[in-house]
Design a protein that fits this description.
This protein is α/β, with parallel strands linked by helices and about 130 residues long. It has one domain (about 1-134): Collagenase (Catalytic Domain) (3-Layer(aba) Sandwich), CATH 3.40.390.30. It contains five helices and four strands. The protein has a four-stranded mixed beta sheet, sandwiched between helices. Strand 3 and strand 4 form a beta hairpin. Helix 1 (about 15-30) packs parallel to helix 4 (about 95-110) and helix 3 (about 80-90) packs across helix 4 (about 95-110). The longest helix is centred in the C-terminal third of the chain and has 16 residues, at about 95-110. The chain is globular and about 35 Å long. The mean pLDDT is about 95.
């Protein structure tokens, strides 16, 4: 089951069913089963505090993923900064909701075992994001 929560933020024109379907399909096409995923939309400040507390990183990010997967069942929490998503959409000249979908898919791909620490991993991650955005 995929749940969506918002902490002190709003997403205009947000259709949760569309995003739940996209994430479920990504997990299925990656060869896994859907467990429990919670997507939590937050502010930059909220996610920065989490980044410092849990990862010892003192910088803004668009998503932090907490992995609770067991075997082939995908479960976890995706904390997403809507401030970062909005800014990235502006920088990359892409619609906000499309950028939001990309970030959500990115988090699910991490839960499916994909990394993005090296240049090669990052290129693979971008390729998969684009595949599932279509």
């Amino acid at each position: 089951m995929i749940e969506i929560e918002m902490i002190n933020v709003e997403v205009p024109e947000f259709n949760p069913e569309f995003f739940v379907l996209a994430l479920s399909k990504t997990i299925q096409e990656e060869g896994f089963l859907l467990g429990d995923i919670t997507v939590i939309f937050v502010t930059d400040g909220y996610l920065l505090d989490m980044n410092k507390k849990h990862l010892n990183h003192d910088y803004y990010t668009d998503i932090i993923t907490f992995d609770y997967c067991e075997g082939n069942i995908i479960s976890g929490d995706l904390f997403i900064s809507l401030d970062r998503v909005r800014e990235n959409a502006s920088i990359f000249d892409t619609p906000f909701l499309l950028e939001l979908k990309r970030v959500m898919i990115h988090g699910v791909l991490h839960l499916c075992g994909h990394k993005d620490k090296t240049k090669e991993e990052e290129e693979n991650m971008r390729s998969l994001e684009n595949k599932y955005l279509n």
